[in-house]
Amino acid sequence: MSEKDNTQSVLGVVKGRAGIEQQIVLPWSRALQMTRENIFVRLGRSAITASGIFLGIAFLAAVLFGGAAQRVLAEINLKELGVETAGKEFQSRIIWLAGMSLLVATVGIVNSMLMSVTERYKEIGTMKCLGALDTFIVRLFLLEAGLLGILGSALGVIIGASIMMLGYAGRLGVSGIGKAWMSAALQFGGWSIPLWLAMIMALMLGGLLSILAALYPAWRAAKMPPAAALRSEF
Amino acid sequence: MSVYEYIVRTKDLSKIYTLGGVEVRALDNVALDIRRGEYVSIMGPSGSGKSTLFNMIGGLDKPSKGTVFIDEVDMAQLTASELAFLRCRKLGYIFQTFNLIPVMTALENVTLPMVFAGLTTDAALDKGMELLKVVGLGDRYDHKPTELSGGQQQRVAIARAFANDPAIILADEPTGNLDLRTGKEIITLLKRMNEEKKVTVISATHDLKMIDVSDRVVWIRDGKIERIEERKDIEVKVGQMEGEEE
Asked: Which residues does chain A have within 8 Å of residue B197's beta carbon, measured at their own beta carbons?
């Protein structure tokens, strides 16, 4: 071991170093590996965190599917019975429902991410003692939130849509379901979003919301003085 | 590059908390100088301020008043990145509760600081294994902290603290969670590292076993330094510890 290091002045090593951030690194490959470990070694805990995302997005997916399915039913009703069942009131109701489900999803995601960060204050403090830059901490949590968000949302979309498909199978039949996927899930202004697109957007939205929800808690935790972070009891 | 005699210096160091309108002085104008390569133990009862002093010296918390100099660098003047760099390359921490990352193996824990320092994976793994062997855990490199005893976890923590060849090791109650025999092993290990690697060791503890290996003992009480003793002036009696003033 080099004795030289220990007799060198700390002063000379720290000050006068241009671009000191470049002296401390966290390669993306390592960050991804750590994120994977964090998620899969603590699978149960990760599942609970992801369930907040999953349930919210599943609800949203169900609302979206319901909207499209009702539209297809309305067409059938109009053709066969001459009755209009999907007017303006219906459209605004769908938008309202979708908006509410998005709000529910957001609250669930924010709560999950807050818990996920708070219960690891001690780990965060430790990593800072090892020399981690604040941005490393944020990066690790955003990666985890993004990964859990995408996985949870994907599952939510699949489960939410599947349940609704089963529910409407009787009334619509296979062709009707196929039509539902192509028809508008949401209509506002001049915009009409077909169901399949809306589902993809819901998935991406879940991922994005998860990342945004983790941003503030992770940033705040990274900025804490290590002494305070290490005092946590978890 | 000039080398300073005192690797750590504190001046008028104070930490004041306001609890319910009452001012609590956890540290009261502490002045402490620690020489390069010394093994210093900060000792005192619970609530004496030794952990607070430890946190100040280690840059884990900011003082209310006063300054901490590491090699004549005022720690308060360092940016967050410079502080991180200091912690990565020059300081090594050991804690009472070990503080290993639970999802990582022993080797991954030891090599984490090396990752931050930019070592290649091969170099890091080699060095990590070397360090684990030095602390006697070469065969448990792939064990997770839950698969290790307290003493073993602390050894991993010590190996990790030496990952980037630090100049100063800071140990906060390193034997606090260990039984008598394991505690002694850890203290012996720390002293060995201090002598072999010429690293300055600063430990905050109320474990009297630490006195024997310390070059100096700083007794602290109610946020103030009571007295500082050289090891040679402390007489160790069976069943008792006594300090002698010259």
From this structure: 1, 3, 6
